[in-house]
Amino acid sequence: MENLAYYIFCILAFIVAVVVLKKVAGCLLKTVLIGVIVAILLAIYFLYFKG
């Protein structure tokens, strides 16, 4: 019975980790995407309009 509780705990911990990782990864992905877009816009500004 002790092993069953351990396996249930591991399964629950895995499910919680997947849900948290999904939320964090989604937020990080949006942040990285916005950072890339800003970097591209800055590069365009400095390379073409500033010079």
Features:
51 residues; mainly alpha; 94% helix
**What Rg, in angstroms, do the CA atoms define?**
22 Å
Major sheet description = none
SSE string:
H
How far the N terminus sits from the C terminus, by CA atoms, comes to 73 Å
> Strand-residue fraction?
under 5%
Number of strands: 0
Shape: rod-shaped
Helix content: over 70%
Question: What is the averaged pLDDT score?
Answer: 84
Described by its quaternary structure, the protein is: single chain
- Please, how many helices? 1
Residue runs with pLDDT of under 50 for 5 or more positions: none
**Helix/strand/pairing class, anyone?**
mainly alpha
How does this structure look, described?
The chain is mainly α. The protein is 94% helix and 0% strand. The protein is built from 1 helix and no strands. The radius of gyration is 22 Å and the shape is rod-shaped. The model has no long low-confidence stretch (mean pLDDT 84).
